[in-house]
Structures are given as structure tokens and as C-alpha cells.
Specification:
The structure holds two protein chains of two kinds. By secondary structure, chain A is α/β, with parallel strands linked by helices. Chain A has one domain (about 1-215): Rossmann fold. Chain A has helices at about 35-50, 65-75, 95-105, 125-135, 190-195, 245-255; strands at about 1-5, 10, 15-20, 25, 30-35, 55-60, 80-85, 110-115, 140-150, 155-160, 165-170, 175, 200-205. Chain A has a nine-stranded mixed sheet, sandwiched between helices. A two-stranded antiparallel sheet of chain A has the order 2-5. A two-stranded antiparallel sheet of chain A has the order 3-4. In chain A, a hairpin with a 2-residue loop joins β10 (about 155-160) and β11. In chain A, α2 packs across α5 and α3 (about 95-105) crosses α4. A four-stranded mixed sheet of chain B has the order 1-4-5-8. Chain B has a four-stranded antiparallel sheet with strand order 2-3-7-6, with no helix packed on it. A two-stranded antiparallel ribbon of chain B has the order 9-10. In chain B, α4 crosses α7 (about 230-265), α4 (about 65-80) packs antiparallel against α8 (about 280-305) and α7 packs parallel to α9 (about 315-340). The mean pLDDT of chain B is about 95. Classes of the chains: A alpha/beta, B alpha+beta. The interface of A and B includes residues 72, 185, 186 and 189 of A.
């Protein structure tokens, strides 16, 4: 089985602050990480590899420093890494990003394409489904679990609002994975040592199959109108009382807000 | 000269920090309190290669270097000093002397099991009457045909209770003093070999420090490590390497105490404001951080020299001396800045202060490090 996983380098938003004057992200000193949903998608691929044997490729689109997450993927156990980077891709919204990725994926043979549900910097959850549309492949989003029958059918557990949906889908297909699906493995020490001996393939516009008009700023119908920081919440009320009394206070507060009847 | 980490080292640091934060730190207080060897952590470390960082790939190791190894011991010790010393004793004191002095057959037999973490390693030099004065060894090994028969005992042996293989030292010619000591490899289940009393310690309480007892232990001659009567040199060289590991442990303890203290002083309010607003707090923190960063430079310099196969004995002594004394000073200040809470087990700094003390004592006391450093200046 051949699996491709799309991954993205994002600022670690647990450590991020917004400049209250400009409304933009303060990126200085904020570490970059592999997007958590993507990391779970990668773990899902690696588990399929452990259980059934598979060839796993990771692909990312991003500036040169995104090389780091491809090395991280090598250190976790992937077989091939592709870095899509070209000035023509710059300024892309989700649609232009998905066009570029789909352009690259047309050049790669795969049975299963995995993306994370969404990236913690944009939270759109659009790129995975858009890629599936461009490639005209069946897609299943919000995946919690996936099993392979060893022939060509995947059994999938999909998270929906009311519970779970179980599906059977034949390869090839596209899935988007939730970070709660698994706990991603650590990079191994030996894997880290090897990661920098391996080749990351760098692909630009010339290496992929895509209409240039769909790329970068030109291919992006979305533009950000305004970004602003949410106001700070006032300090809460603090009670130091026994548990029974505390429960009573909480219930009254919830009733005041009509959360409880 | 380059003070930056490479991309590979940064990736490694990211991994080991995540691991320490998520797998090691949550157990630290309990491991200390119950004096429990964290075997489940060792298994997790084994799985991702932490038990064989500087061991070459050909012997089943990760193929990393000593700098990465010290970074690992630092980060692990910042979360839990017990876990730091388990890795340090295993790597520096057991796997390293086998790698550096073993025959090809010994390396093939022991290193893959040690590097994979399937086996844990330990080192036995100290005896009741032979601490810093290692020449006072009373454990003896007598040649008998194709074997050696070992009798005696060792004390204060880190990992003892959980180890599978031990590098130990014994007198093979008592008349020759240090020139009559030899090194041997002993496996756990060898008849006559047993583990004695477990010490109740001030700090690093999870590390299983015990006595080793040898009663007519018969081992094949193949288990002699290095040449006959050359054990003292092997012990000293091994401890030179070990000191880098312990220096990294001390560095980690200091860094761990700083992280806890920075968090605390921002939260703790007195006289209507966080105590981080007081100049005394700020100046103490500045001193703590400066000395810790200086320790880090010394540790990394020593590790870098070992990686480059340059003489590093004095660098290792300086790194250990300075990092250990800094750990003691920094943890003491950390407790002071925490006030009464710092003296309780509700906060981790009192544990760190107890853990720090041993770094001034084992693998060569601070006094021994001063002897090594000054001897080199005055030769």
C-alpha cells in the first residue's frame, strides 16, 4: 500500500500572542511545530505501515524552514519526503494551496491520502476536502480511526456531532484525521541522526501539474478583511468554601445564566 | 567557534524535551517519594533509542554523539534527576567502557543489548574502604585455569538492582597497588553474585543504589575487560566520561529549578504584587540563570572535545565541578524564593535541592575535580 500524508508547519499557538495594536500575530520567538492534526494523520499512516507494511510519503508546501517538519517525519519513520516550495505558491489561501498540493499529488501514485482535519493557525478544515475535489476522489473527514482489510477496503470511524459513523471505503481515497485519533510516536534518536542523511525532494512549479492561474495570491479568492484580539475576560470570582457549598454556588451561577433550568 | 546547535541537534532537543515533559516529569515526585526505580520510563526510553545515544549503529546504538547524550541527560534531569542518572550510569559507566576497551566479541555480545535498552548497565568501583582512594580495593580476582574467581563487595552502585551487566574492578595483583587492578564484565545471573543492601538516600531516591556481593563468582577469562592489571586506567578514563554525564545531570537539575522558580515568582503575590516584581527576586534569578548557562557551556565544550577525540579530562572535571556547585546553589536559592512552600513536597524544588547534593559527591567529589584541574595547571 502507498500512503501520502500532507503536513504543515504552524506556529505553536499555545504560545502565541496577538499584538493588541495591529491585530496581527506576534511570531517572534514562537516555536514552529508540525500541525497536531497532521501529526496524528502521520501516526495513522505509520501504524498502517507497522501493521500491514506500506510506503509512506509526506508532502508539505511552505517556505524553506518547513524542511524541519519533513526531517521530523523522517525521524518518525516515513520513507519519502517532498517539499513544495516556489515563489509562485506564495500568498496562497486554502484554495490555491489545495491546487498546488493536488498538482503535486497528480505526480505521485497512492492508495490513501491523509491530511489533518485542520491547521491550528487557520482552523479552516478546507484543504483536505478541496484536494479530494480537485483529484475527484472519495473523501471522509473527521476520522477517529481507520483499519485496512489488507486488500483494498478501509473501515473508518468518523466523528460526527451525535456520535460516530462507521464507513467502508475502497482505495484510493482521501481522509482527514482528528488529533484525538491517536498519540503520535516520538521521533527516535537513531531516526533523527539518519533524518539529515536522507534526501528531501524539493519541488517547484515546474515539477507539478497545475494551472498557474490557480496558484499563489492570484489564485486566492479569500483575503483577510480584519484581524483583532479578543478582549480580556475580567477576573473570575474566587470562593474558598467546602465542596457542598461550592457546588451550590456553581449551580446558582449556571441558573443565573440560563445554562441550567 | 560556533555556539549554535545544528538543525539535527535542535530537532533532537525538541524530541527529548517533549519526552521529558510528557513521560518523565509526571512521575518525578512519586518516584522520589516511594523510592521507586521508574522501570516503565526505561522501557519507553529504550523504545526510542535513548539508552544507546552515543553507541555506533553497528552495535545497535542510535549513532549519535556525546553532545546529544549530554543534552538528553540535561533535559531528563530537569524533569527527574533519578531518570537522568539511570541513563548516565548505564551509558557512560557501562556501555562506554565496553565500547572503548572491549574486544570485538565483547562489543558484539553486550553493546546491542545495552544500546537497545533490553539490558541495563551498571559500574562497580567503590568499596567501603575504597572511595576516592580507589587503590584500596579489597575485591580480588584470582586466576584459575580458564576462569577468574572473584570475591569481595562493592557499595553505592547505581542501577544495581535492575542491571543485567556490570563493569566491575578487582585486584589481580595486590602487591602492585593501582597497577594490580583489572576490569571485568559480570552478568546478573552469575552464580555467587548477588545484590545486597539498598541504600536509603537523601536524593535521586529512585535510582536503586545497592551493594554488590561476590562470593566465589567464577567468570570466564573472556570477561576480562581490557588488559590484565590495566583496570585502574580504564576506571579513571571511564569516570572522565561519566563526569560529563553527571555535569549534564547537575545542569539539568539547575535548569529545572529555574523553570519552576520563574513560574512561581510570577504567580506568588506578597505586599500586593507578584514577587517577580521585587529586585531581590530579579537579581537572584539573574545569578541563577547566568551560572547555569555557564555550566551549559562547560558541559557542551567537554562533550564536544570528547566527540572530536581530543583530550577532555580537565574539561570534564571543570564542567562537573562548576555544574554541581551551581546546581547546589541554584536549587538552594530556588527553595528560598519559594519560601515556606519551597520547603514542602507540594513543590518540586526541595526534591531538586536534595537531588543536587549528590552531584558534588559521586563520580569524583568536587575536591577530586579540583585536584584534577590544578594538577594539570601545575605539571
Amino acid at each position: 500500500m502507498k500512503i501520502v500524508v500532507c503536513i504543515k508547519q504552524v506556529p505553536d499557538t499555545t504560545e502565541i500572542k496577538i499584538d493588541p495594536k495591529t491585530g496581527t500575530l506576534i511570531r517572534d520567538g514562537v516555536p514552529s511545530i508540525m500541525n497536531p492534526d497532521d501529526k496524528s494523520g502521520l501516526e495513522m499512516a505509520l501504524q498502517l505501515k507497522d501493521e500491514n507494511g506500506a510506503h509512506v510519503t509526506v508532502i508539505t508546501m511552505g517556505p524553506p524552514q518547513a524542511d524541519l517538519i519533513l526531517r521530523e517525519a523522517y525521524a518518525m519513520g516515513v520513507d519519502r519526503a517532498i517539499h513544495l516550495t516556489d515563489r509562485k505558491f506564495a500568498g496562497a489561501d486554502t484554495l490555491a494551496t489545495s491546487h498546488a498540493l493536488a498538482g503535486a499529488l497528480r505526480k505521485i501514485d497512492f492508495d490513501l491520502l491523509i491530511t489533518g482535519r485542520q491547521a491550528i493557525d487557520g482552523d479552516t478544515a478546507q484543504v483536505g476536502p478541496q484536494i479530494a475535489e480537485h483529484l475527484d476522489l472519495p473523501q471522509v473527514s473527521y476520522l477517529q480511526d481507520l483499519k485496512f482489510d489488507g486488500v483494498k477496503t478501509f473501515t473508518m470511524k468518523r466523528h460526527i456531532e451525535e456520535g460516530y459513523q462507521m464507513l467502508e471505503v475502497d482505495a484510493p481515497c482521501v481522509v482527514t484525521v482528528l488529533s484525538s485519533a491517536n498519540k503520535a510516536r516520538y521521533m527516535s534518536v537513531g531516526g533523527i541522526v539518519d533524518a539529515y542523511q536522507k534526501e528531501v525532494e524539493v519541488w517547484g512549479f515546474n515539477e507539478i501539474e497545475v494551472d498557474e492561474a490557480n496558484l499563489g495570491l492570484k489564485g486566492s479568492p479569500t483575503s483577510v478583511y480584519k484581524a483583532f484580539a479578543r478582549g480580556l475576560k475580567p477576573a473570575g470570582e474566587l470562593y474558598e468554601v467546602e465542596t457542598d457549598e461550592a457546588v451550590g454556588i456553581i449551580i446558582n451561577k449556571l441558573k443565573e445564566k440560563f445554562i441550567l433550568n | 567557534m560556533n555556539f549554535s546547535l545544528t538543525n539535527e541537534q535542535e530537532l533532537f532537543q525538541q524530541m527529548i524535551r517533549d519526552f521529558a515533559e510528557n513521560e518523565v516529569k509526571p512521575l518525578a515526585a512519586e518516584v522520589d517519594d516511594r523510592e521507586r526505580f521508574p522501570i516503565e520510563t526505561v522501557e519507553k526510553m529504550a523504545k526510542i533509542g535513548i539508552m544507546g545515544i552515543p553507541i555506533p549503529k553497528q552495535y545497535g546504538g542510535a549513532g549519535g554523539n556525546n553532545l546529544m547524550y549530554t543534552m538528553a541527560v540535561e533535559e531528563l534531569s530537569a524533569a527527574c534527576a533519578t531518570t537522568g542518572v539511570i541513563v548516565s550510569a548505564h551509558t557512560s559507566l557501562c556501555a562506554a567502557p565496553i565500547l572503548e576497551n572491549g574486544t570485538e566479541a565483547q562489543k558484539q555480545k553486550y553493546l546491542p543489548k545495552l544500546a537497545s535498552g533490553e539490558w541495563i548497565g551498571a559500574f562497580g568501583l567503590t568499596e567501603p574502604n575504597a572511595g576516592t582512594d580507589a587503590a584500596g580495593q579489597q575485591t580480588i580476582a584470582v586466576e584459575d585455569g580458564d576462569t577468574y574467581i572473584i570475591n569481595g563487595s562493592k557499595i553505592f552502585i547505581t542501577n544495581a538492582e535492575f542491571a543485567h551487566v556490570y563493569v566491575i574492578f578487582a585486584m589481580t595483583d595486590k602487591s602492585k597497588g593501582t597497577r594490580g587492578i583489572s576490569a571485568f564484565i559480570i552478568e546478573k545471573d552469575t552464580p555467587g553474585f548477588s545484590i545486597g543492601k539498598k541504600e536509603k538516600k537523601m536524593g535521586i531516591r529512585g535510582s536503586a543504589t545497592c551493594e554488590l556481593i561476590f562470593e566465589n563468582v567464577v567468570i570466564p577469562k573472556d570477561n576480562l575487560l581490557g588488559k590484565l592489571h590495566k583496570g585502574f586506567g580504564i576506571a579513571m578514563k571511564t569516570l572522565d566520561g561519566g563526569r560529563i554525564g553527571i555535569a549534564a545531570q547537575a545542569l539539568g537539575i539547575a535548569q529545572g529549578a529555574i523553570s519552576e522558580t520563574v513560574k512561581y515568582v510570577k504567580e506568588r503575590k506578597q505586599f500586593g504584587r507578584p514577587i517577580s516584581g521585587f529586585q531581590n527576586t530579579q537579581f537572584q534569578l539573574a545569578d541563577m540563570n547566568t551560572k547555569t548557562e555557564a555550566s551549559r557551556m562547560l558541559v557542551r565544550k567537554a562533550a564536544n572535545k570528547k566527540d572530536k577525540k581530543l583530550p577532555y579530562s580537565v574539561d570534564a572535571a571543570m564542567a562537573k565541578l562548576y555544574a554541581a556547585e551551581t546546581a547546589m546553589e541554584v536549587t538552594n536559592k530556588a527553595v528560598q524564593l519559594h519560601g515556606g512552600y519551597g520547603y514542602t513536597r507540594e513543590y518540586p524544588v526541595e526534591r531538586m535541592m536534595r537531588d543536587a547534593k549528590i552531584t558534588e559527591i559521586y563520580e569524583g567529589t568536587s575536591e577530586v575535580q579540583r585536584m584534577v584541574i590544578s594538577a594539570n595547571m601545575l605539571k
